[in-house]
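Appendix B, record 7
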Amino acid sequence: MKNLLIKSTFGLLACSTLFACQKEKQDETTTTEQTTTINQSNGIIETAQKSPDGTSVIFSNWIQKTDGDWTSFGTTKWTTDMNTTSLTSAVKDNGLVLVYFNYNNFISQLPNQSLGENIVLDYYFNTGKITARYTYGGGSVVGDVWYIKFRYILIPSSAFSGPGQGGRVGKPVDYKDYNAVCDYYGIPK
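Structure tokens (predicted):
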């Protein structure tokens, strides 16, 4: 009887170890990220990247805007649109919409006032559309600001839950730092 008890205990330990190793192997295969590419037209290509925790972050390519892409409102304001079906009401209301601009390899988050005196680049959004706005208040202008590239990153509310995420208010990363955001969410720069 004692011999049977020792063999049973040994068998149970061996099975437990085997199942623990198999579970660990299963976890390794689910850590790969899944990506989907979405063509929004007008030169906008989006990537929806799903992480192991099931959170999807959507980011666009760098969208080149030129003189003809801007609509004038008087002599001091111009806008340009970026249409996207990925900007849903759920993302608009509870997620985070980040927009960055690239001008001569200078990358910064909007809103921004670093292109010259009294020049503001900012944005606003609604379901399905992000609008970048250029406001000129006079003064000097640094280069040809009409040839700006924009990139947006859409972060759903589900990305703010879970341990260590900090919610929408407690930022997990400095959103003003483009490189840090790309590193944190695994976005190619």
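Remarks on this record: The chain has two domains: 1-31, 34-185. The first strand starts at residue 34 and ends at 41.
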